[in-house]
Amino acid sequence: MDVVDSHTHVISPDAERYPHAPLGGHRSDWSKARPVDHHALVAAMDEAGIAQAVVVQASTVYGHDSRYVVQAVRAHPGRFVGVFSIDAVADDAVDQIKRWMDQGLVGLRLFTTGSTMPGQADWLGDRRSWPAWAYAEARGIPVCLQMTMDGIPMLRGLLEQFPETKVLLDHLARPDLADGPPYDRAQALFDLAAFPGVHLKLTNRTLAAAGQGASTATAFIPLVVERFGAGSILWGSNFPAAEGRLAALLDEAKAGLSVLPEADRAAILAGSARRLYPALGEARHG
Fold first, then answer.
1. Is the model's pTM score more than 0.85?
2. Residues near 105 by Cβ (< 8 Å), separated by ≥ 6?
3. How many CA atoms lie within 13 A of 64 on its CB side?
4. Nearest to 237 by CA among 250, 218, 224
5. Residues 6+ apart with CB under 8 A from 21
6. Between β-strands 52-56 and 4-8, what pairing exists: parallel, antiparallel or unpaired?
7. Does the pLDDT at position 108 exceed 60?
C-alpha cells in the first residue's frame, strides 16, 4: 500500500551550521536522545516501505529557523516536502511565510504547546496573527497546529474569520479519550467537523490515547472517520519524537486502521496527504 508519513522531524548533527534555538528555551529530550538527520530518515522510510514524508519543523530544537528542513527537502527531491514554523504575531509574519515558501517549503506550522512549552498559548487567536492567517487562506497554504483541546475556542474564532483556511491538527489536538464512546470529553473536537478546512493528523499519540480507559482504537477510529471523513485524516508517525523504529510505528497505525474499509485506509495512509500537499505528487512525478 502507498504510504506517506505526514509528520516526521530531522535533526542536523552540525549544531554550528544549524544552531539550537528551541521554543520554550530548552531543547526537547527526544531530540537529544534520538536525533535523526535527513539521510537516516530516508533509510528508515526505505526500511518501512514509506514512499514520501512531510518533514515538519522541529520547533523544540530550531524554533523558527527552518533552514535544515529546506536542506532535507533539497537533498532528497521526490521524497520530502517541508513545513516551516514562524512567529505568527510578529510584524513581519507574512514576510516570514514568503521567505520559506520561496525556498521550496509548502506548509506552515504554529507551535502553541509541546514538551518545551506546556499548556496552551493564548496568542493563537491574537489579532496580530490575522495577516498571516489571511495570507495562508488566500494562497491555500495548510496551517499545521500543535495545540491542545483548550485552544479550540480560539481556533473556532479564527476559522469563523478565515473559513477557507486549511488547518491540520497535530495529534488531533490531544483529546482525552479515556471516557470511551461516545467520547463526550472530545465533543469540542468532533464539533470542528463543521469547518470543511479542518484536517486531523493521526499519530502515535492519538493511537495511545485511544487505548486508554474505556476507549479502544477500534472504537475511536471509525467514529472520527464517520465525523470528518477519511479524506480529512492523515497518518503521521511523529518519528523520531516517537520512540521505536519507523517500521514499527507504521505497523501500529495499520493495526489501528484495520477496522476501516480499504479505501479509507488508503486515504489516511497516503491519499489525504497528497491532496492537502499537492507538492507531494509533483515531487513524486517530477
1. yes
2. 66, 69, 70, 73, 81, 82, 83, 84
3. 16
4. 250
5. 62, 63, 64, 65
6. parallel
7. yes
Helix (H) or strand (E) holding 86: none
Which CA distances in Å does 172 have to 41, 51, 209, 233?
Answer: 24, 24, 10, 9
- pLDDT tens for 242-263 read 999 999 999 999 999 999 999 9
Residues 184, 186: Cα–Cα separation, whole Å: 5
Q: What is the mean pLDDT of the chain?
A: 95
| Cis, peptide link before residue 35, omega less than 30° from 0 | no
Residue 167 has pLDDT above 60, yes or no: yes
Our measurement of the distance from residue 179's CA atom to the centroid of its chain's CA atoms, rounded to an integer in Å, reads: 25
Q: Could you give phi then psi for residue 85, rounded to 5 degrees?
A: -120, 145
H helices present in 140-232, as ranges = 152-161, 187-191, 204-209, 217-228
User: What's CA 42's distance to the chain center, in Å?
Assistant: 18
Residue 67 has pLDDT above 70, yes or no: yes
In 137-213 the beta strands, taken as DSSP E runs, fall at: 143-146, 167-169, 198-202
Q: Which three cell numbers stand for residue 224?
A: 472520527
C-alpha to C-alpha distance for 9 and 51, rounded to whole angstroms = 16
